[in-house]
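Q: Is it fine to ask for two folds in a single conversation?
A: Yes, each is treated on its own. Send the first.
Q: Here.
A: Result:
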Amino acid sequence: MHATAFRYRPPVNPVAAATVEIGKVVVSVRLSFHGDLYACRRPPGVVERVEAEALDLLSKGLFVSGIDTPLATVTGTAGHRFVQETAVFQPTDRWVYRGTCGVGASRNGLTLTGMLGYRLEVRAGWARRAGECGPPATAAEWCEFFGAQLASIGGVVLRRASVLSPGTPP
């Protein structure tokens, strides 16, 4: 049986994202990957279509919890293994978590394998109804202003966010 095999590089843009408003706070979560995966499709298919299928498989069932802590947890139904390496506060409105993600997923004849780097960005800011509140200047202020709302969220389901090149089927 023939197959289409190639290196798959996820888009530079976020692969999955979500925005949640709770009380007077708006939280935005964005996940992006960097690196290459090995992709194999049996039976063979058009590479552009296989790339769309790969993006669907990579972004399937992504869930983020612990966004109020220095150790955010990322999971995915495709069986990705996320290992966080760093968490850095970027004034005035975001934490950026970085790490590695082991991928070994298959669906409908498509198999993705390899190791990617990931970047998880969690932004928090005041919603319009919060009025004229100043932005936090430090990580401690950010946690003081937004920590309770972030903790009450529990977790966020991310949805596929990347746009493929024009003409590529979703």
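Q: Second one now.
A: Result:
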Amino acid sequence: MRALLLTLMMAAAVASHAQTLTPVAVPGRAAVKLEKVLKKIRNGVVTDKRPASLPVEARPALNRILVESTNEFLAITSTNPTKEAYLQSLDASLNQLHPLVKKVEERQDLAVYYQDLLEIVGLESSEGLLSAFVEKKPVAARR
């Protein structure tokens, strides 16, 4: 419920700006694939069918953020999917993850996860958000 509320608030914020939104042609089975990813991460932090090399002490928080962001992607997919909405959701999630992961390898594992989400919904690029995250550079929120 919270994730849906956040998504609706983000969508309203994006809609309130005078920019042109870029509709995304989401592949037909995207929602089904996102649901499968969501089931997998609810059981623990898993990337590409293997346990992630993420710090044990941060895994509960990381898992919560991954579940929330996957739920947001599902909500965006089921409403009015735009490139900007997905990127704004990605940006918010990465900013939450930023202080939790210290090593480049950990950030790469998370970047792979989010790249998979982007591919599921038909986006080819994170417009530099994932690269900046892996390089541990804070990313300004997109508007």
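Q: Anything structural to flag on that second result?
A: Two points. Strands lie at 46-47, 50-51. The radius of gyration is 14 Å.
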